[in-house]
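Re: weekly structure request thread

Next one in the queue (291 aa):
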Amino acid sequence: MKWEGRAESGNVEDRRGAGGGGMRMGLPLGGGIGGLVLLLVFSALTGQNPLDLIGAGDGNGAPSDTGFSGPGSEPARAPATDPQTRFMRVILGDTEETWTSIFRERGQTYEPPTLVLFSGATDTACGLGQSAMGPFYCPGDRKVYLDTSFFDELAQRFGAPGDFAQAYVVAHEVGHHVQTLLGLSDRVRSARQQASEADANALSVRMELQADCYAGVWGHYAAQHNLLDTGDAEEGLQAAASIGDDRLQRQTQGRVVPESFTHGSSEQRVSWLRRGLASGQLQSCDTFAGR
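Done, posted below.
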């Protein structure tokens, strides 16, 4: 990607090196590109039940505070000028430019989220956030949370390297923020609370696929901003394919259980990301059509 020298967002909060710990975690609704990616991997490697690692929800999609914390290391804070941080700032800044323009055309005002970079664990309005949750968005404080070590997992374990793959991760979580601003998150949260487990999972899948499509909408405009290199879009599509529920379940438990999907299959994630990339239109991302 052609990101060097571009404008950087000021809406980045760097908590790396601020400490934090804890052995339990919560999963905020509507939240993570990988969602259970690293949690499932951790469970497969340790033999622990993933449900034992998740805090109880408060009914609003936010996990409750477990009140348990443990000792943790305090890694050195990465300087604000390191390439990884500057890259994140540039990508977030470009999403701000894109969504501000799209919202303006709709007669609305875009309020950008804050991107929080952290190491290990951090407090959020949705409960304790941990690296094993993967990147996620918390509607309670309208912040995107990201431990950049996830990118190592994405490249090495899931075979999806590249700067656009990383940008897709950020753009997907920003897509959840767009859903919050448009009122979609609240409507889906309410519907899930009254639905069966299977129907609640299906609604979650639709939310995640729409965030993938919104990431594609941003990618469409990023190409117009001359931000993309040849092959960048394929990096994003590979990343989407690598974290489909079917692929993750096959890797971690040896079988696929479609009714338990919460993020969508690899094929679905690629399809909706591709749709956003091709159209650049919000209306092309209606994953709820037909309900």
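The mean pLDDT is 80. The longest strand covers residues 114-117.
Next request, please.
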